[in-house]
Amino acid sequence: MIAVSDLKAGMTFEQDGKLIRVMDASHHKPGKGNTVMRMKLKDVRTGATTDTTMRPDDKVKKAFIESKPVQYLYSQDDTANFMDLETYEQYEIPTSVIEEELKYLLENMEVKIQFYGSEVIGVTLPTTVVLKVKETQPSIKGATVSGSGKPAIMETGLVVNVPDFIEADESLEINTQEGTYLKRASK
Q: Locate the Elongation factor P C-terminal domain: which residues (predicted)?
């Protein structure tokens, strides 16, 4: 058991038979009354998110989540396929569970999948990925980094705001936590 006041973003716990991931947690002291924890929670299995408050001294059962290195193979219909790098065992994950993560995945990319017991519950991406620009507006001569930028569609379908000097077919480093452009990828 873990106290609600010890929960941080990214932690997972069990409650009423549900597996819940903390997206955001903060202490809140109203003008009158006791301190409460404001939290944004996500049901790992259904993807539903809720905003809630809990008392800091409440207890929840921490879920033990295990990660395994895997290679993303391909997506077909509504299933994404991964292969364990050690045992070559293959895992199928419904694309609805990892909809956001798929925007950063290229075939043969190494990632980690998360297990709760024998149940696959998600994918952990690296902090940055290199993606190629599939489509963007033509570059503007004399453009600087400090300009407002323009949207670029990456090879995976992800749309990222990039500086005006970026052109199609360039490889860019993208932050997977925020979905933002970092820099041109080194060749």
A: 129-184
